[in-house]
Amino acid sequence: MSQVRKAVIIGAGPAGILAALRLQQFNHISPIIYEIRPEPTTLGGAIGIPSNGLRLLYKLGLWDALRDRGAETSTVSVHAIKGHVIGNMDMASWSREKTGFGYLRIRRVDLMEVLYDEARKAGIPICFSKHLTGIEEDNQGITVTFSDGTSDKADLLLGCDGIHSMVRTLYVDPNTEPEYSGISNIYSLVATSELPSAAASIDSLNVMLTTDGLLAISPCRASREMVYWFFSRELAIPPSGDTRDGWEERGKQQVETIKSTVLDLIKDSEGEWGLTMKETVRQTNTLRFYPIYHLPAGGKWSKGRCLVIGDAAHAMQPHASQGVSMALEDIFMLSNLLDSNPASLNEVFRIYEQKRRPRVNEMHQLAERNGGVRKRISPWQLWLKEIATSGALGIYSLFGLSKLGIGQKPLAYDIEEDMH
């Protein structure tokens, strides 16, 4: 295959725009992005980006703009069901020492505004209302066609269109389908001006285990004028089945009842945090529900001149905050390999999969393990878990185990080192 000069990218989410920026900046490839939505989406809550992703955003020149909007929240405070803190842990002290970056929580809409602004400045075209209907390949390149009758041809096609990827479904791997994880989230963004004054001083991720799932709250803007809270719990597939209609009905039921459910679960929570959390739930006007899906490991990632990356290839549960970071690692690995193997896409994709699969599988398993704390437990199990958590965090703090990098080593992963 000849050298890549033009890349068609399907999907104008974080993975698509970041891929376009990197390929243009580093590889001098001309990218064009096609997006199925009619305009940039404003949906989504707040995204967590740990050290491994932040280091790559810095290399793209995006760190300062994102830091100005997001909240650096590297510490997690664990609360008992009564409200008091049973332990604190810095999630990024060791990885920050290794990489220079901690953990950023940022609204998805803020992230996308920064990315669209950067794409605009770089002159990267983004075409909306483009529903992909076909992919064909020959010796000269790969051609995509859309429902409006238009088409485009390039040397490289990237599927950056998320877990329900049309690129994967139409061309790369039609047999791999998303699977429900058994966990669902309810989340909301609330202005701190509507909450007790203590809400504006929340500067870390605060979590509480309940008998019915995990409750958490965190700042998500640098100015601390907004908090992001979510309740993550085990939830069965709707009786009507794993269908869009079934989940829409289940979502409506959850949104209608979740405030009273959460308030009942934390009714004995006292102190400043307990009161703030209760008032945050009460003052929430808009709730969003989403069942968490993931892709099974082992699916195909490439075919001919086409590669799927990010969630389109290996969507995992969000419980390790690795969605954006995994996409960034994919992009940098691809970009570096294109630079070192300019004449052979086959060789690029072969080495890419050889290097990426172990890393992706490691983070996939971590996210799945972290999802386990969302499962329903009895009051006795919760009591025992609180005691165990308090003891573990106490030992962690007393002996300074953060210096050993326990739990943080995957966050110091360096894509450049993996090239050797």
What's the helix and strand layout?
Elements: E1 6-10, H1 14-27, E2 30-34, E3 46-49, H2 51-59, H3 63-69, E4 71-72, E5 75-79, E6 85-90, H4 93-99, E7 104-107, H5 108-121, E8 126-127, E9 132-138, E10 141-146, E11 151-154, E12 156-159, H6 166-172, E13 179-191, E14 205-210, E15 213-219, E16 226-234, H7 244-265, H8 271-282, E17 288-294, E18 302-303, E19 306-308, H9 311-314, H10 323-340, H11 345-371, H12 379-398
Helix pairs in contact: 1-5, 1-10, 2-10, 10-11
Descriptive tags:
420 residues; alpha/beta; seven-stranded mixed β-sheet; six-stranded mixed β-sheet; globular
What's a concise summary of this model?
The protein has helices at residues 14-27, 51-59, 63-69, 93-99, 108-121, 166-172, 244-265, 271-282, 311-314, 323-340, 345-371, 379-398, and strands spanning 6-10, 30-34, 46-49, 71-72, 75-79, 85-90, 104-107, 126-127, 132-138, 141-146, 151-154, 156-159, 179-191, 205-210, 213-219, 226-234, 288-294, 302-303, 306-308.
Rg on CA atoms, Å? 22 Å
Helix content: 25-40%
- The strand order across the widest sheet is 6-5-14-15-16-13-17
In what range is the share of β-strand residues? 15-25%
Q: State the oligomer.
A: single chain
- How can the largest sheet be summarized? 7 strands, mixed
Distance between the termini: 24 Å
Number of helices: 12
Would you identify the regions where 5 or more consecutive residues have pLDDT less than 50?
A: none
Q: In terms of structural class, how would the helical and strand content be classed?
A: alpha/beta
How confident overall, as mean pLDDT?
92
What is the number of beta strands?
Answer: 19
